[in-house]
Amino acid sequence: MSNWFPTVSIHSLAIVVSVLTYILTTRAERERRPPSIAIAWVLGMIALPYLVLPAYLMFGRRKLPRKTLQLAGAQPPAGHWAQDLISSFGLAPSSPAAINLHEDGRVSADALFSIMAGAVSRLDVCTYILGDDAFGLRIAQRMVESARRGVEVRLLLDGVGALQVSRSCLKMLERGRVETEIFSPLFARRTQGPRNLRNHRKMVIADGARLWAGGRNLAAEYFDGLAGAPPWRDLTFDLRGAVAGAAAEQFELDWVAAGGKPASTRGAGPVSDARAEQNSSEAQFLPSGPDQTEDTVHALLIDACFRARDRMLAVTPYFVPDVSLETAMRLAARRGVRIDLVIPARSNHRLADFARSRALRSLSQAGVNVHLLPYMSHAKAVVFDRSLALSGSVNLDSRSLLLNYECAVVFYGAAEINWLARWIEGMMVQAVPFNCRAPTLLRDLGEGLLLSVAYQL
After folding, report:
1. Which residues does 340 contact at the CB level (< 8 Å), separation at least 6?
2. Are residues 109 and 47 in the same domain?
3. How many C-alpha atoms does 356 have within 13 Å on its Cβ side?
4. Quick one: 233 and 262 in the same domain?
5. Do 393 and 300 share a domain, yes or no?
6. Quick one: which of 60, 207, 56, 228 has its CA closest to 133?
7. CA distances, 362 to each of 39, 270, 337, 346, 357 (Å)
8. I need a surface site. Which of 72, 87, 254, 308 has the fewest CB within 10 A?
9. Residue 329 lies inside a defined structural domain of this protein
10. 290 is a domain residue
11. Among candidates 290, 316, 433, which has minimal Cα distance to 379?
12. pLDDT digits 0-9 by tens, 79-132
């Protein structure tokens, strides 16, 4: 009995120290976390302080102070409210761009190879995954070919995605004079911040003038299919103009943050093309992640939900929203906005499929139409009314919106908005509605436990 009181006192002290550490670090670094995430950390520290405090110190931060694309003296353009909002973040204003959207993997690959082959002075490639397969090898070979003809080629791989790249591929890139950096490697400290902040951006930029981007990683399942299976349904686009220049600036910042040397060559800048300018539409580059002061894409989505008057169309492979985005969508549906959410019935991430059910039930009860696809769709796009759309690497889940380094392009042109709307509506024809049945007690408890850490998945 005499040993019991000291044990209780030490355990109580550990709880107090853990909670105080959370409070002080949050205040000192001005971290803004959704209530559900904050509650999960605090409850974890109370229940398991010896385990959760080290985890918090390792993974708890989600905003990292470093130079961003802040534009001193830039004036927000008068026009669409989204242009004003994005410019208020200090990001590049919208500008005309010649845009091509591609749903087909082979068309996307042709556009990607065209941009790589057309690079004159610099080729920047940022991807989460470079596949250890035939398609990944083709990408590596084309980077080597570009380097051999005098182009400065740089490859930025995420630390988790890089685990899939073979040593032989990396050696081939090194011998071919392709500069390669690993962003936030798991077993090194070259990149600032916790190891759970992953770079999920997908961009290929030629000379700061042409951009290929979207949801596809550079692996076979996104383009040709793998082992006889059909390719995943996905979405990418290429464009020419100042938007590509904004993406190139973001790549440069990420490259330097990962330990790379600044570019030795300057991009050619936006290429003048009279025919392209005639067919251009307004677009805006939108990076999101720990390097941004605000949760930019998250803020845009919530604002758009409250401003929507007619419709919201969304396609995403993983749907585990935080409370604020879920609430914004639910309220929009209740006031009469038609919301169609398209997701795969079974994705490649089974935990995400399990965790999404609670939000899907809540939204379905509010009138949101949830469409389940019979195949894997990895596409990410959202359309609001007939005046705004966005697409890129951003999934509609808490990890993607609140933790990952992501990027998207916002489209203001009628052609791109209508194309994306028709494409999403076309997938809905093949889908089945979500069955909004009540969960069992065991499933309800399991969903609650999983959702407490869903933002880290």
Report:
1. 311, 312, 313, 314, 368, 369, 371, 424, 425, 428
2. no
3. 27
4. yes
5. yes
6. 228
7. 21, 46, 16, 19, 9
8. 72
9. yes
10. no
11. 316
12. 899 999 999 999 999 999 999 999 999 999 999 999 999 999 999 999 999 999
219 pLDDT tier (thresholds 50, 70, 90): very high
Name the domain count of the chain: 3
Which string of b and e fits 188-209 if b means at least 16 CB within 10 Å?
eeebebbbbbbbbbbbbbbbbb
Burial of 361-394, coded b for 16+ CB within 10 Å and e otherwise, reads bebbebebbbbbbeebbbbbbbbbbebbbbbbbb
CA distance 162 to 167: 10
Proportion of the chain in helix, strand, coil states, percent, rounded to 5: 45, 20, 35
Give the predicted TM-score (pTM) of the model: 0.86
CB 179 within 8 A of CB 146: no
The label of the residue with tokens 């069992």 reads 440
Enumerate the H helices of 242-282 as residue ranges: 242-257, 274-278
Statement to judge: residues 126 and 206 lie in one domain = yes
Distance in angstroms (rounded) separating the CA atoms of residues 255 and 250? 9
Residue 289 is assigned to a structural domain of this protein: no
Residues 312 and 446 in one domain: yes
Regarding whether 449 and 303 lie in a shared domain, the answer is yes
Query: Distance of alpha carbon 181 from its chain centroid, rounded?
Result: 20
Whether residue 164 is found in the same domain as residue 253: yes
What per-residue confidence (pLDDT) applies to 67?
57
Q: Minimal CA–CA distance to 235: which of 221, 210, 212, 215?
A: 215
Domain containing 258 equals 95-279
Supply 268's token pair. Answer: 């050619």
